[in-house]
Design brief:
Shape: globular
CATH architecture of the largest domain: 3-Layer(bba) Sandwich
InterPro entries: Bin3_C, BIN3_SAM-bd_dom, FAD-dep_OxRdtase_2_FAD-bd, FAD/NAD-bd_sf, GMC_OxRdtase_N, GMC_OxRtase_C, SAM-dependent_MTases_sf
CATH class of the largest domain: Alpha Beta
Protein name: Long-chain-alcohol oxidase FAO2
Largest sheet: 8 strands, mixed
CATH superfamily of the largest domain: FAD/NAD(P)-binding domain
Oligomer: single chain
Distance between the termini: 96 Å
Family: Belongs to the GMC oxidoreductase family.
Strand content: 5-15%
GO molecular function, one term: flavin adenine dinucleotide binding
CATH topology of the largest domain: FAD/NAD(P)-binding domain
Helix content: 25-40%
Number of strands: 29
EC number: 1.1.3.20
Structural class: alpha/beta
């Protein structure tokens, strides 16, 4: 007999130890043992019957002799209408067909059965004496609902859609025969073969079992040596493909078959996600919406272009030579050398499907112009002549050595031609961000703990904390047709609110509490607190706009914007700052908005702060402690940043990927709950195209749910657009009736952000503890009118950190990346005076035109210098900016350590048990470093600049010539149409704008209630409200 090189053991189930069972939940079970995995799966399906779709079609891939499949078909209630077993071995398929006849012959009814079946039961011994019963000729139930096919399931197209797919003891064999890429393709076929809401039960074999399997043939030994993916990575790959783990539901038994079986709910729209967690319970959230099953690379680029990208990416993230590796490891503590060695050997193409992930980002995030530029450069690099022109070497580029590729990329970075710099910047930013976001082993190699954190449970110097249970939201999505209809579905309400962030949630709660029927439509997904994976991939891809990367049209700035249920309040860093007094005065006087200087605005600010449980009694992590220490030593004014943490010591550094504790009081935990409790309804995955206008009056919105089902959500009394400063103007610009309003999309402010990295001798672990609890105001008044910058701490993760590090060569970059646990990044947030604009690209998406003005560049540079000084005074050993062409600065020897009581004079609680020695800010080399930072500056592609706050693109004001909305938030040129979000703010807020947006939206909600006649007698009236009649 041939060796079972495909795992096609002829007596596989005879090798498993039988387990005697009896009646299980009323189902008759044979005493010679039902497969433990089947019992567990049946019990799980029964327990979750109300939450999963009915299992009508079952597929068993690699079914062997089909014992689990046949048992499953008999134990499921109701039974499946169709079951298919597929195996590559025709002999095993024949065994399976024989087993089907034997199962039919020996089928035993329940003990209490009085059916005809019980009277005609065929005893077990008769199969040996007289043979097996023939199968019935036709039936919709067992056994004629079961068929078997002998084929390689990896070949051919995926057509059938199943409710349950079994993949038991198969992953190892797929992996060994098809390699890393084939394994990812196999998982992709599994996902494509599932119906919406379907389940895959998968048994992942451990790595140690591969050693015995590889001995079966020489080809398996060769394949085994090339494998980079490990079984522990497979759950992560499944999550990338849109699966959500429910954790182990059974353990195999006997003879080494101890592998967990996980059941994963299939999502309608496949998406990138984070690593699966055994702590994740069965989700009641909506499906993901970013489709990773699509082959973006083949759609966007030729095979040669993909090969060119892989070559360029492998040169940027390249394995170190033996000499480089020795230098890299030299001097590291013994406990860190193993991690460092893993990082040293990595290259970009170790990331499964990495080229396709970059292609996905190019497709979904960048503008058409940038997409064309990158495609053109890749096409040129794929040819001999084009490579000669761009690289100076005869190509194609994959035949050019990696050092030469790095040299031409460095030349591109220094090019005076902006388009060339844009190309290099795009390749570099996407390569680094994609690799360190999705390559779990790379993130762990630099010291980052993957997945959910429970630091918040045991904050320092505080009692043990418990999670706040999530609210059980219900969604209108459940009422939509399961199969998309050609005609749009109509949904009716009094008021339609587009967006569930800080603006939409407040308005929804305010109007619902006053008796209006409210429907909130949200294009993102809902994830409850106890389901948050807290991984970079899930968080950035599913909870941020465009995968967490919205570049401006000239790639001069990248925007982080929330995109999910709760909007930016779900992923922000908890900062709850009041707007400054000079800003309130300017908005009141310059824009004809007395509300902002009124006691009513103060009332709204404090009411919103109270609703979120805002407190300044915070526990700083080490990063924020170092910022406060550096500011104190350098004489900079610094203060504690209040947090919206429900008066809890919320000590979670990963909240930018969603709060698992429920302590961060974003709108999901506050106003959306208030709205739901007063009858508001919610529709997620609903992307609004335009506002429906009828004779100048807004009557609803046209939208698409999950990219398939068209819907019309009608608002009998009005529409409120609260989709954020990027998408609100885009929706209004796509509405033909509003084209006369030329102010829509203008006056966009982004709070440009520069990044300053400090590296310390002792661990900082920037991912631990509350992310942002301190701020330096030293550069707040670069201009006397209140234009300047604030310095805060960045919520850190490898994808952001590594993409923002200066890149001079691959060795230095890996060295800096490895210092991640010993670093933190200070961010410089500019209150930008000069704004940009939101337009539409040729596909109708928001396109951001924005360039940092010379005026605002001055504020940025001053803030960067103050941030550098903070690191120096706090005792950093190295300092780096995100600028191109500024070397990493190695600090001179530091001064003697200060007394330990130095921290006592600084407000707040601190983690520092050993105060670092103060750096020599007066040292000539440090002053030269500051001058080099100022000389290079932050021109386009000269340094990484980001944005975490967007404001002003539908400015509210008294003057039609300079504002898209009037002082009540009404869109000019339309009736019954309001805007309530950050886009109405007249200018940049200068502080984290969450509280300002919440209070302003409350003021707009008050105006809407008055306009619609639903204001309560005890509601504080608007400043210009008409007198109300009182009984």
């Amino acid at each position: 007999m041939e060796a079972p090189v495909y795992g096609n053991f002829r007596r596989y189930y005879g090798m498993r130890r039988a387990r005697a069972v009896g009646h299980e939940g009323g189902v008759a079970v044979r005493a010679d043992g039902v497969d433990e995995r089947v019992l567990a799966l049946v019990a799980w399906c029964k327990a979750h019957a109300t939450r999963i779709r009915r299992i009508e079609r079952v597929l068993d891939v690699g079914c062997n002799a089909a014992k689990p499949l046949l048992e499953l078909c008999q134990l499921l209630d109701p039974p499946p209408t169709q079951a298919v077993g597929v195996d590559i071995d025709a002999h095993l398929v024949a065994q399976a067909r024989s087993a089907l006849r034997r199962a039919w012959s020996q089928r035993q009814p329940a003990a209490d059965s009085t059916s005809i079946e019980a009277m005609h039961y065929f005893p077990t011994c008769f199969t040996s004496l007289m043979g097996q019963l023939p199968l019935p000729s036709s039936s919709a139930s067992f056994p004629t609902n079961v068929t078997f096919v002998a084929q390689d399931w990896m070949d051919g197209t995926v057509a059938a859609q199943y409710d349950l797919i079994l993949c038991l003891s198969l992953t190892k064999w797929i992996h060994l025969h098809h390699g890393d890429e084939g394994l990812v393709r196999f998982f992709g076929r599994i996902v494509q073969s599932l119906r919406p809401g379907g389940i895959v039960a998968m048994e992942i074999q451990p790595w140690q079992s591969y050693s015995q399997a590889r001995s079966l043939s020489r080809s398996l030994r060769v394949s085994h040596a090339r494998l980079r993916i490990r079984p522990e990575d497979m759950e992560w790959i499944l999550c990338l493909l849109g699966m959500t783990s429910l954790g182990p539901i059974a353990q195999g038994a006997g003879f080494g078959f101890v592998r967990s079986v996980g059941a994963n709910p299939r999502v309608l729209r496949l998406a990138l996600g984070g690593a699966l967690s055994q702590q994740t319970r069965f989700p009641h959230s909506q499906p993901l919406y970013v489709d990773i099953s699509h082959n973006y690379a083949d759609t966007l680029w030729s095979k040669d272009q993909q090969r060119a990208l892989a070559a360029v990416a492998d040169a940027m993230i390249a394995p170190l030579t033996p000499e480089e590796k020795d230098a890299f490891l030299r001097g590291l503590p013994s406990e860190e050398r193993a991690r460092a060695a893993v990082l040293a050997d990595m290259k970009f193409t170790d990331l499964p499907d990495g080229v396709n992930l970059v292609a996905m980002h190019v497709t979904l995030t960048v503008s058409y112009t940038l997409r064309l530029l990158m495609s053109t450069l890749l096409a040129a690099l794929s040819t001999r002549a084009g490579c000669l022109v761009l690289v100076g070497r005869v190509g194609p580029v994959w035949q050019v050595d990696a050092p030469s590729i790095r040299r031409f990329l460095a030349a591109w970075r220094r090019s005076p031609i902006q388009m060339v710099r844009m190309g290099e910047f795009g390749f570099r930013a996407l390569t680094l961000a994609v690799f360190y976001r999705h390559m779990r082993s790379a993130a762990e190699a630099i010291g980052y703990p993957w997945g959910r954190t429970d630091d918040w449970k045991t904050p320092p110097k505080a009692d043990e904390q418990e999670a706040i249970p999530p609210y059980e939201y219900r969604f209108l999505n459940e009422e939509l047709p399961s199969t998309p209809t050609e005609a749009p579905v109509d949904v009716h309400a009094d008021v339609v609110i587009v967006g569930s962030g800080c603006g939409g949630a407040v308005v929804a709660a305010y109007l619902a509490e006053r008796g209006l029927q409210v429907v909130v439509v949200e294009k993102g997904m809902y994830v409850s607190a106890d389901e948050m994976p807290q991984t970079q991939s899930f968080g950035l891809d599913q909870m941020f706009e465009r995968l967490g990367f919205v570049p401006t049209s000239n790639l001069s700035l990248a925007i982080l914007a929330g995109s999910g249920f709760g909007g930016g309040s779900t992923i922000n860093w908890g900062a709850t700052l009041m707007p400054r007094h000079y800003l309130r005065e300017a908005w009141s006087q310059r824009f004809g908005m007395p509300y902002f200087q009124s006691s009513l605005f103060s009332h709204d600010l404090h009411a919103c702060a109270r609703r979120m449980g805002t407190t300044d009694d915070v526990t700083h992590n080490r990063a924020n402690s170092l910022l406060m220490l550096g500011a104190h030593r350098s004489g900079q004014p610094a203060q504690v940043v209040p947090q919206n943490n429900a008066h809890r010591p919320h000590y979670c550094g990963k909240c930018t990927f969603g709060c698992t504790a429920g302590h961060k009081q974003g709108t999901v935990m506050t106003w959306l709950q208030d709205a739901a409790q007063h009858g508001a309804q919610f529709l997620t995955h609903c992307e609004v195209d335009r506002v429906i206008m009828d004779r100048g009056r807004a009557t609803g919105v046209e939208a698409t749910v999950r990219g398939q089902q068209r819907v019309r959500v009608h608002g009998r009394r009005g529409v409120v657009v609260s989709a954020g400063s990027l998408n609100t103007p885009a929706i209004l610009l796509r509405t033909p009736a509003l084209r006369r309003n030329q102010q829509i999309g203008r006056h966009l402010h982004l709070h440009p952000v520069a990044f300053v990295h400090g590296f310390y001798d002792k661990p900082v672990r920037p991912w631990q503890g509350a992310a942002l609890t301190t701020v330096s105001n030293a550069a707040e008044h670069v201009d006397p009118q209140g234009w300047g910058a604030k310095i805060e701490v960045m919520a850190s993760a490898p994808a952001l950190y590594c993409a923002l590090l200066p890149y001079h060569d691959h060795v230095e970059h890996k060295s800096l990346a490895f210092r991640y646990p010993y670093s933190y990044t200070a961010i410089v947030i500019v209150r930008d005076r000069d704004g940009g604009r939101v337009k539409l690209d040729q596909g109708g998406r928001a396109l951001v035109d924005y360039s940092l003005s010379a005026f605002d560049h001055t504020s940025l540079l001053e803030g960067v210098k103050r941030a550098i000084e903070i690191h120096m005074h706090a005792g950093a050993s190295m300092i780096a900016t995100s600028q191109t062409g500024v070397p990493v600065y190695t600090c001179p020897p530091r001064q003697e350590n200060m007394a330990s009581h130095e921290m006592a004079s600084i407000p707040g609680r601190y983690e520092l048990d050993d105060v670092p020695a103060q750096g020599q800010a007066e040292h000539p080399s440090f002053q030269a470093f500051l001058r080099s930072v100022e000389r290079v500056g932050f021109g386009p592609q000269r340094g990484a600049i980001g944005s975490a706050h967007q404001m002003g693109s539908c400015r509210m004001g008294a003057h039609p010539a300079s504002s898209a909305c009037d002082p009540h938030g009404r869109v000019r040129g339309a009736d019954n149409l309001w805007v309530a979000d950050g886009s109405v703010l007249p200018e940049a807020a200068g502080v984290n704008p969450m509280l300002t947006i919440l209070a302003t939206s409350m003021g707009i909600a008050r105006h809407i209630a008055e306009d619609l006649g639903v204001a309560r007698p005890l509601d504080p009236p608007s400043l210009d409200a008409a007198p109300r009649a009182h009984l």
